[in-house]
Amino acid sequence: MRNRGSVVIMEDNKLCLIKRSRNNSIYYVFPGGGIEPEETPREAAKREAFEELGVTVQINECLAEIEYEGTQYFFLADIVSGSIGTGQGEEFTERSLDRGTYLPMWVEIDDLSAIDVKPLFVAKK
């Protein structure tokens, strides 16, 4: 079990998500990842936003804490600089890892009910 820090970024009635294709299924997740031993959940969320999305963010309040294979923290965040889709994390550079595909994208909030967002609890908030 590993604790995770994730960001919830909303702009212009859209939510930034990562479209995952893995093991013949497609689903969407919030950008984020594992918290390193020396990091706080906020620091991990900020680092993961840069690695996965290519953006620097300002971390705001914690929207949710969910217990699932460790504690998962979801922070509301605002983009300070950078461009979505320019992330250089290992998800994009280590092709030998069998993790499926990652595609950062904006999703209309009105379209969330038609896609498989994990965790749904956070998307509904």
What does this structure look like?
The mean pLDDT is 91. The chain is an alpha+beta fold and 125 residues long. Strands 1, 2, 3, 4, 5, 6, 7 and 8 form an 8-stranded mixed β-sheet that branches. The chain has a single domain (4-124), classed as Nucleoside Triphosphate Pyrophosphohydrolase (Alpha-Beta Complex). It is built from 3 helices and 8 strands. Its cofactor is Mg(2+). Belongs to the Nudix hydrolase family. Residues 1-125 form the Nudix hydrolase domain. It holds the Pfam family NUDIX.
List keywords for this structure.
alpha+beta; 125 residues
Radius of gyration: 14 Å
Rough shape? globular
Distinct helical segment count: 3
The main β sheet shows up as: 8 strands, mixed
| Average predicted local confidence, pLDDT | 91
Order of helices and strands: EEEEHEEHEEH
Q: Please give the share of residues in helix.
A: 10-25%
CATH topology: Nucleoside Triphosphate Pyrophosphohydrolase
Content of β-strand: over 45%
Distance between the termini: 25 Å
Task: Examine the secondary-structure arrangement and name the CATH architecture.
Answer: Alpha-Beta Complex
Structural class: alpha+beta
Superfamily at the CATH H level? Nucleoside Triphosphate Pyrophosphohydrolase
Low-confidence stretches: none
The structural domain count equals 1
Strand tally, please? 8
CATH class: Alpha Beta
